[in-house]
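Hello Y.,

Per our agreement to keep a running log of every chain we model this quarter, I'm adding this entry. I've kept the format consistent with earlier entries: sequence first, then predicted structure.
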Amino acid sequence: MQMRQRVVQNGYDTERFYPEPVPREQIENMFDIKLKNKLVLFVGKLAHFKGVDVLIEAIRLYENEYPKDITTIIAGDGELATSLKKQAQDGNLHDLHFMGHLNSTQLRELYSTADVSLVPSRREPFGLVAIEALACGCPVIATNQGGLTDIITDEVGALVDVEDAPGLAAAIRKEIYHPDRAQRGKNAAKYALNNYAQGSLMETLIKIYNS
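Predicted structure for the entry above:
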């Protein structure tokens, strides 16, 4: 008997993640920081497999090249929080801020404000944070690992090699200074809604089950 197979991807909650542009002053007041011209964002667990140590090395590279022009926010917590903060301190990084755990409203506003979101994972089975960022109109730079290779396209971001801090820094620079940055944000939100909206995927699953 021949078995038929259908693959249904995971999806994101469209009621929690969507474009919500807010004044930059609102972000500054929320976190008591001063934003530079560009905003780079990481959201995730501070664990080895997430590659945040590689990201911090990339931050050092682009801060040296564009001093006082880029703010980076790391949102999340985990067992490596202390060592990662020390790495940032040892690297003399002035425009990097660790925010700890944030709620979905705070994340949505950050995603909607950021110029790029990063997923520098050493391994990543799926990559829901990438989809949530795209849903808010934020292009994504991610590593070419696991499910990320199925999510990220040239129209909404870029893929880089694992452990490649210079490559990650270069991809970040290219994205945040992209001449068509506004359109790429619109592309990202439309792409996520068309392909990963939780409600649509559930309807597909129900149709498959009923058939």
